[in-house]
Amino acid sequence: MTAIRQTRATCCYCGVGCGVIIESDGTQVLGVKGDPEHPANYGRLCTKGSTLHLSASPVLQQQARALHPELRLERSDTRTPASWDVTLDFMAKKFANTIREHGPDSIGFYISGQLLTEDYYVFNKLAKGLVGTNNIDTNSRLCMSSAVAGYKQTLGADAPPACYEDIALTEVVFIVGSNTAYAHPILYRRLEMARRANPKLKVIVADPRKTDTAREADLFLPILPGTDVALFNGMLHICLWEDLVDMAYIDAHTEGFAALKQTVRDYTPAYVADICGIREQDLVEAARLFGKSRASLSLYCQGLNQSASGTAKNAALINLHLATAQIGKPGAGPFSLTGQPNAMGGREVGGMANLLSAHRDLANPEHRAEVARLWGIDDVPAKPGKTAVEMFEAVRAGEIKILWIACTNPAQSMPEQKLIREALRKAELVIVQDAYKTTASVDYADILLPATTWSEKEGTVTNSERRITRIKAALDKPGEALHDWEIAIRFARKLEALLDKPRTLFPYETTEEIWNEHRESTRGRDLDITGLSYRILEEKGPQQWPFPEGANSGKKRLYEDGLFPTANGKARFVNTIYQPVAEPVDVRYPFRLTTGRLRDQWHGMSRTGTVAQLFAHQSEPSVVMSALDMERRSIRNGDLVHVTSRRGSQILPAISSDEIRPGQAFIGMHWGEEYVSGRGANGDGSYGVNAVTLPAIDPYSKQPELKHAAVKILKADLPWRFLVFGWVDASRVLELQASLRPFMRRFGYASCTLFGREQMGVLFRAADDYAADPQLLAEIESMFGIAGAEVLRYDDKKRGNARRILVRDGKLAAVALAGDISAEHWLKEYLESGQAVASLGRLLLMPSSQAPQGFKSRGKIVCNCFNISESQIGDALAGMVGDSDVCLASLQDKLKCGTNCGSCLPELKKIILTQRTSMKAAA
């Protein structure tokens, strides 16, 4: 019997940096559990982290993974397998020739916050030290660059000053621009624990949507999108008026307050309430809670950052902290929550177009000289590099000829997808380095480089609280995949030979050698880690920086002494002035569209999208609207609508929700063309949510305004519907989903997602303005096994309706509905439940949507861990008495929901509150 090995690593999703213990047999991951000794999570995992072992299933990995290098010599060719030497030789020659002919700035690198620190360091050195270009940027530009710029403008360095422990020590938590309950669930568990331990702790949430996080707040400020600067300035105005600022702290530790004070005089409560769309008394209460508190802690994320004024939003919030001295003490501080698992590590090594290693600025000649000396090169180029949006614009314009994409999927995640795809088609050479071959960006790759992924990589990552964790690999590299740093180094050595370099800049054989060079670059800097080593990280566990040589531990929180990493040691107030969103609504585009995370999915879903049960909570793409807006437009739940901006359009089902106020709409950020598409308005295809988002960028951080766009929403006239769903053998489920992608573009609208738990199924949905060719439908049905004598058939050619039922072993195995698909609600649940169908008789083929007698829909899955649905929760609550807390405890005891990862707890509380309110109204 093979012994089970346990390997410590971290979760590869959000920036909380939860420790995990990978259980494996040396060849595959058998399970995963939270690391009880890791200070980020103490053993807790969210619904995504707790299913990591499912995404690492060998059966799924074999279908989704890139396992061999692939090379396309001419654009008209298909990619074919090639050896590493042949592939890298081809790349090196192409790079060398392009550099000689067009200069080093004709090359661009677009990398990722999901790389390990060592990977990041090597790529940064490859671009700036060997190729000689600063055209290296990262998808962290899309999520954290405004936080970086805000910290640097005010505090002097890109360093979150607080720590997770502060959540238990604070008196007021101000959550803004973050649905923490969904985006950072384990951090939210800490907040829940803190509130239980201290009932006096107050939570303020500012958000355009009434999210699960907002529902649980003591004070909810439903601000209009993009009005954050006005909100913070208005709160500071009130703090000034009511003498809640700390003038002694301001005088001793800051500069620039006089100009800001003059500005915020105009931000009166009435003026700000009008701009933000909130009640004046709520604004005043928020300012008083924040200013009077012994310790106030702000938690914020993409709602502040993904904006054309994202830096100003960050700075305005930090202004509020500085003015009230809510910084540099336990329980207080402006705490930016990192979006990706190692966005912090990438910032530390300077892996962005405007940075250098150890938080050095590319624009600073002394900083460039320091890095050049460390690397042993003549100089680091001074010309600013292209940031994310700028880089793709330069590719489209022909300025950048070669684009190397690593560990990210810009054909899903970047704004204005039309621009991105035009750029990818225009480039002379597109290299995609990824663990997965199923992303939309791979379709544009001339070269595919297979890389390792979670459970196979080793190195370090840094989480949101500046804590570095050492990761070890549980599994060997699969197929011919290499570590990201190995690929970059092998290529670099070949390029060095062609460029006649006398010695290599890349002598490393291990990740520790890379990390040691990175460590030396931090000496004397704000993030000094010269006191750390791999050995210390392995023996003492994860450590926070700074951790200079001679120190016994890292620093929990920064600026406790009131000294800041600026020229004079003082923090700087920034004179922040409110600017409206980059694209205001108007008569033609009257809706404010926002985007954000779903609870159980991650980024472009290349990993979570392989786990069927993670679709249970949000099974298909949709646009969320207010019931009032839908009623005014005669849109019913599930009706298809065009969501159209000035850049593109995507058809989606509309769903009503009380979380959205009239005039606004919301789409999950994860839905790319891998899961939703169609012919598009001009027959050129649609590409998910980012077909409509905005590429306008912040002037300081260069972060795009992904969070807001002006759109129009019109009912889609697509009366004919088609739906196929069925169980698929696990060995081909992802291959089937990928093979259906070309078919999606042949309909006006189409989506394709997974479902199931013990079994895996695929659901394909399409709509059009006319009935599709029967041959096309038959081809799709046959891919689900719906063919042959086992299939029950019903056809009504006059009405254009058809039904195909595949029964195996007396149970539903697959269903296809064309025309009238109203029976889907019970047929799919019958299939999922595995009930015998013999008793249904002709009902299976009846043209009506009538469900079997006694059938009751389960509804949405609320608790993914225990597969508990809305209807089960409702039934369990029906006979319960007592207040909400008593009902929650009884519910957990009876159904176990919310007792494992806890991700469903906010929704459980919402359901209980709704049911209690309904019962009182009925009484």
From TrEMBL:
<dbReference type="GO" id="GO:0016020">
    <property type="term" value="C:membrane"/>
</dbReference>
<dbReference type="Pfam" id="PF01568">
    <property type="entry name" value="Molydop_binding"/>
</dbReference>
<dbReference type="InterPro" id="IPR041957">
    <property type="entry name" value="CT_Nitrate-R-NapA-like"/>
</dbReference>
<dbReference type="GO" id="GO:0051539">
    <property type="term" value="F:4 iron, 4 sulfur cluster binding"/>
</dbReference>
<dbReference type="GO" id="GO:0046872">
    <property type="term" value="F:metal ion binding"/>
</dbReference>
<keyword id="KW-0408">Iron</keyword>
<dbReference type="GO" id="GO:1990204">
    <property type="term" value="C:oxidoreductase complex"/>
</dbReference>
<dbReference type="InterPro" id="IPR041854">
    <property type="entry name" value="BFD-like_2Fe2S-bd_dom_sf"/>
</dbReference>
<keyword id="KW-0560">Oxidoreductase</keyword>
<dbReference type="Pfam" id="PF04879">
    <property type="entry name" value="Molybdop_Fe4S4"/>
</dbReference>
<dbReference type="InterPro" id="IPR009010">
    <property type="entry name" value="Asp_de-COase-like_dom_sf"/>
</dbReference>
<comment type="similarity">
    <text>Belongs to the prokaryotic molybdopterin-containing oxidoreductase family. NasA/NapA/NarB subfamily.</text>
</comment>
<dbReference type="Pfam" id="PF00384">
    <property type="entry name" value="Molybdopterin"/>
</dbReference>
<keyword id="KW-0411">Iron-sulfur</keyword>
<dbReference type="GO" id="GO:0045333">
    <property type="term" value="P:cellular respiration"/>
</dbReference>
<keyword id="KW-0004">4Fe-4S</keyword>
<feature type="domain" description="4Fe-4S Mo/W bis-MGD-type">
    <location>
        <begin position="4"/>
        <end position="60"/>
    </location>
</feature>
<dbReference type="Pfam" id="PF04324">
    <property type="entry name" value="Fer2_BFD"/>
</dbReference>
<dbReference type="InterPro" id="IPR006656">
    <property type="entry name" value="Mopterin_OxRdtase"/>
</dbReference>
<dbReference type="InterPro" id="IPR006657">
    <property type="entry name" value="MoPterin_dinucl-bd_dom"/>
</dbReference>
<dbReference type="InterPro" id="IPR027467">
    <property type="entry name" value="MopterinOxRdtase_cofactor_BS"/>
</dbReference>
<dbReference type="InterPro" id="IPR007419">
    <property type="entry name" value="BFD-like_2Fe2S-bd_dom"/>
</dbReference>
<protein>
    <submittedName>
        <fullName>Assimilatory nitrate reductase (NADH) alpha subunit apoprotein</fullName>
    </submittedName>
</protein>
<dbReference type="InterPro" id="IPR006963">
    <property type="entry name" value="Mopterin_OxRdtase_4Fe-4S_dom"/>
</dbReference>
<dbReference type="GO" id="GO:0016491">
    <property type="term" value="F:oxidoreductase activity"/>
</dbReference>
<keyword id="KW-0534">Nitrate assimilation</keyword>
<dbReference type="InterPro" id="IPR050123">
    <property type="entry name" value="Prok_molybdopt-oxidoreductase"/>
</dbReference>
<keyword id="KW-0479">Metal-binding</keyword>
<keyword id="KW-0500">Molybdenum</keyword>
<dbReference type="GO" id="GO:0042128">
    <property type="term" value="P:nitrate assimilation"/>
</dbReference>
<dbReference type="GO" id="GO:0043546">
    <property type="term" value="F:molybdopterin cofactor binding"/>
</dbReference>
